[in-house]
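Quick review question:
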C-alpha cells in the first residue's frame, strides 16, 4: 500500500497509482502460494540473509511507484518472480535461485502495463491496454485485455477482451487490483487529474468470464463477497462480487481520501473524516479501527493473521501499529517510551515476522513486537517469502535476491 487511490471533492479528480501491499502480492491476497498447480507448504520464514545477493534479475518492467519497493513491479511466488515486460509486451517469470529467465509469454497487441501481474493458485493474471487500429475514416479503438497464464509454464489459459468507451483517457492504464480463487478485479484509471471516469471489471478466475463492469467506479480492494472502491462522485462503496449490486456507501470526501487493502476482512482509508486513518469492514463499510491523531500511511499483511501499519503520530514522529485482522484489535505500538523502544522503519512482514531497519537490519515478532534478531544481514528485505528476501536496486533498476542464510546453512 505504498501508493493509493485519491479523490478530491470537486469536479476534476486526482488519480494516483494503486498497488496492493507487499504481502498481498506474496500471498496471492489470502491464497497459499503455488506454482504450476503444486501447493507450496508453509515453512518458517527467513531469520537471516547473506551479506551479498546470490542472484539478480532485470527486466523492462514499469517504473516502481516507490524507488526501493519491488512489490510495485514484481509478484513473488515460492521459486519464481513474475513481472511485466514493456518491450516484448507480456509477462516474464524469473528463477529466484539463479535470476535466470524461466519463461516469457507475449500478449498479442498488448500495450501499456502498470504495477505487477498477480499470482493466485496456479495462475498468473495480467492486464494490458490494447489498441485496434482504425482504417479509412474510422478511429483507433482502445480496449483492455486480461490474460491468465499457467504459473509454472507460462501457457495461456484464457484471454478476455474488455471494451472501453470511445472517450477513454488515452493515458489510462489497467492494473490487476486483486485476484483470488474465484475472482479477478481489474481497474483502469488515468494518472493525475482527469475528466474521464475510471473503469473497473470483475472477472471469473477460472474462465475469464466478465461478471460485471462499471464505469465511474475504481475498485481498490477485492474480498470474497465484496469489491470496495471509490465512485466517481467521491463516495466510498462496497459492491457484491455476485452481481455488482451496491451493498453499502459512505461519504469520505472530506479532504483527500486514499484507500487500499491491508489484509483480508479490512480496507484501509486515509485522509477521511477529519484526516484520520480508518480500517473499515469491507462487507458493511463500518469502521473497525480509528487511529485517531495517528496517520497510518501503509499496512503490510503477514499472510496469516496480522497487519502491520506504519505512519506518523500527531507530532510527526514515526509510529508503528500491529493489528489483528480478525478482531481489528491493536496488538502493540511503537514507539514505547516506557520501554525506551523506538519505531523502526518497516520493510516487509511475512508469516509472523516483521523485517525492519533501526540503525541495522532486524526482525520483530509480529504478534508481540518484541525483538527477534538484530543480526539478519546488511539489508532488510522489501519483499519476503519462505525462502528468499528481495531488495530493489533503484540505481540499476534491478532486483537483488537474498536466499535465507539459515536454509543455506542447513543445506
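Suggested answer, residue by residue:
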Amino acid at each position: 500500500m505504498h501508493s493509493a487511490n485519491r479523490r478530491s471533492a470537486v469536479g476534476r479528480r486526482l488519480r494516483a497509482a494503486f498497488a496492493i501491499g507487499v504481502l498481498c502480492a506474496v500471498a496471492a491476497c489470502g491464497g497459499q502460494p503455488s506454482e504450476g498447480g503444486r501447493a507450496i507448504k508453509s515453512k518458517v520464514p527467513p531469520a537471516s540473509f547473506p551479506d551479498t545477493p546470490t542472484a539478480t534479475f532485470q527486466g523492462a518492467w514499469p517504473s516502481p511507484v516507490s524507488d526501493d519497493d519491488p512489490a510495485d513491479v514484481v509478484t513473488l511466488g515460492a521459486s519464481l518472480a513474475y513481472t511485466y515486460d514493456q518491450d516484448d509486451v507480456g509477462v516474464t517469470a524469473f528463477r529466484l535461485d539463479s535470476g535466470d529467465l524461466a519463461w516469457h509469454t507475449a500478449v498479442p497487441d498488448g500495450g501499456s502495463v502498470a504495477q505487477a501481474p498477480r499470482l493466485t493458485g496456479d495462475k498468473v493474471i495480467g492486464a494490458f491496454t490494447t489498441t485496434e487500429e482504425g482504417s479509412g475514416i474510422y478511429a483507433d479503438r482502445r480496449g483492455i485485455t486480461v490474460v491468465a497464464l499457467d504459473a509454472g509454464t507460462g501457457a495461456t489459459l484464457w484471454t478476455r477482451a474488455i471494451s472501453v468507451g470511445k472517450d477513454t483517457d488515452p493515458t489510462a492504464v489497467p492494473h490487476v487490483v486483486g485476484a483470488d480463487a474465484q475472482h479477478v478485479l481489474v481497474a483502469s484509471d488515468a494518472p493525475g487529474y482527469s475528466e474521464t471516469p475510471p473503469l473497473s471489471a470483475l472477472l471469473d478466475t477460472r474462465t475469464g468470464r466478465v461478471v460485471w463492469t462499471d464505469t465511474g467506479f475504481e475498485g481498490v480492494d477485492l474480498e470474497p463477497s465484496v469489491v470496495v472502491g471509490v465512485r466517481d462522485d467521491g463516495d466510498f462503496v462496497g459492491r457484491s462480487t455476485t452481481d455488482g449490486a451496491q451493498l453499502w456507501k459512505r461519504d469520505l470526501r472530506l479532504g483527500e481520501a486514499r484507500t487500499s487493502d491491508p489484509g483480508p476482512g479490512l480496507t484501509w482509508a486515509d485522509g477521511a473524516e477529519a484526516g484520520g486513518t480508518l480500517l473499515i469492514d469491507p462487507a458493511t463499510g463500518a469502521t473497525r479501527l480509528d487511529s485517531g491523531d495517528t496517520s497510518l500511511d501503509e499496512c503490510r499483511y503477514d499472510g496469516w493473521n496480522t497487519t502491520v501499519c506504519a505512519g506518523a503520530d500527531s507530532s510527526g514522529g514515526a509510529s508503528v501499529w500491529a493489528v489483528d485482522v480478525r478482531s481489528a484489535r491493536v496488538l502493540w505500538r511503537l514507539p514505547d517510551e516506557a520501554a525506551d523502544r523506538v519505531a523502526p522503519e518497516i520493510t516487509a512482514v511475512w508469516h509472523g515476522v516483521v523485517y525492519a531497519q533501526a540503525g541495522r537490519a532486524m526482525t520483530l515478532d509480529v504478534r508481540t513486537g518484541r525483538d527477534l534478531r538484530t543480526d539478519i544481514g546488511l539489508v532488510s528485505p522489501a519483499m519476503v517469502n519462505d525462502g528468499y528476501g528481495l531488495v530493489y536496486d533503484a540505481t540499476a533498476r534491478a532486483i537483488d535476491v537474498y536466499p535465507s542464510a539459515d536454509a543455506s546453512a542447513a543445506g
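Why it works: The radius of gyration is 20 Å. The first strand starts at residue 5 and ends at 7.
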